Automatic annotation (TrEMBL):
Cofactor binding, per record: The Mn(2+) ion enhances activity.
Organism this protein belongs to: Falsigemmobacter intermedius
GO MF annotation terms: hydrolase activity; metal ion binding
Binding site for Mn(2+): C98, H100, E133, H159, H357
One matching Pfam family: Peptidase_M20
Peptidase M20 dimerisation domain segment(s): 181-280
Known cofactor(s): Mn(2+)
Protein known as: Amidohydrolase
Amino acid sequence: MLSNSDIHDLTEFRRHLHRHPEVSGQEEWTAGEIRKTLAALHPAQILTGLGGHGVAAVFEGAAPGPTVLFRCELDALPIEELTGSEFASEIPGKGHQCGHDGHMAILTGLGRLIARRPPARGRIVLMYQPAEEDGSGAALVIAAPRFAALKPDWAFSLHNFPGLPMGAYAVQAGDANCASRGLKVVLSGHTSHASTPEYALSPALSLSRLIPQVMAMGPGGAQLDETFRLVTVTHAKMGEEAFGITPGRAELWMTLRTVRDAAMEDLLSAVTAAVEAECAATGLTAEFSHHDVFNACTNHPEATDRIIAAAEAAGVPRCEGQFPMRGSEDFGLFGSRAGAKSAMFRLGSGVETPNLHNPDYMFPDEIIAPGVRLFHQIARDLLG
């Protein structure tokens, strides 16, 4: 188990990472700090540059056995931190307001325990994944040629979660995180002088019609099942910042969200058809582009059972938590694409605390120890 000295070191390491956040795809400094910290643990291998700035440490057991991967994230958010902490972000406009700094500290604590007592068999892979926040990281890591040699049989991850009791966990087999994607629609016509709007092909009325139409296709609701659809309009703009020009161009940005991937395809088709119908009726043209694409995340039942059994053995209390999460995750690709039996659990970061992605959110250091304890028990149960 972790000593008081371990917990002190991991807390300081977490705060060190917190001061220097890097957003998706730019995690070079963070990856370097992780690599230096892992080198002191003397794993059998340290792989760098996986899917960008990804880092993996491989610990070998004495006998053949399965490969168990534990994953955390490297990236921060383009959010100005407003915690007022003495170890707040030193990078303007960027902050660890999702708690990935804490996830890295937890995985590093697991590495300390594994280094002191390697597994009896098989392999343990500590995967520090880049670019989770924009949905690209897991796919890039899995596609990296050197990842093929790791090929995990099991994959586990956690996410700190406000609204759950501090240090308690929640997990459920099946639907775990919603699928989502950003859809940007550009409507094009042509301008005219503002005194003669009849000579323009303006997207103004089309934009005003499409916003409520697409929102009605995804009204959301509390029932998170295969019928769930949510369309959130996140940004819209039209024309130039001028009073003398009738607009000829507009942009509509939206996030589509469903529980399952098949439902996402249906929702995307419906929204696309609505835009195309509007253009056919008005003479506008439309261009579509897709951003921050996340597949649905599903917890494998056997991996979920492993988490539950390990938590009981490690003395980590269980609580109820709404599943699936509305928020999205790319961790599920380690199951659906890499072939592992995978599951993610939530680790409570307190009932009365700001939400994730809020500018005043701060990962609580108190949950580093239970996170390490639960991960370590999973590893011990599977590999001895």
